[in-house]
Specification:
Length: about 60
């Protein structure tokens, strides 16, 4: 899934909303609307946000 995060075309300095917007664009239209897939969508979004937080932490540590 980290590869998907890298393909979101966002920067480390973007906020969480930008991450969610970019991640939702990567999902198929049917997957965005299906109520049965809600748990999977939430898991996907949270995973993308976790990767984003990790990247931000690296930037803070190394002062990039």
């Amino acid at each position: 899934m980290y590869g998907t995060y890298l393909r979101l075309d966002i920067t480390v300095h973007d906020g969480w909303r930008a991450v969610i917007r970019a991640a939702s664009r990567k999902l198929a239209r049917q997957a965005r609307r299906d109520p049965k897939r809600r748990a999977a969508r939430k898991r996907f979004y949270r995973e993308m946000l976790d990767y984003h937080r990790q990247e931000q932490a690296i930037v803070r540590i190394w002062r990039l």
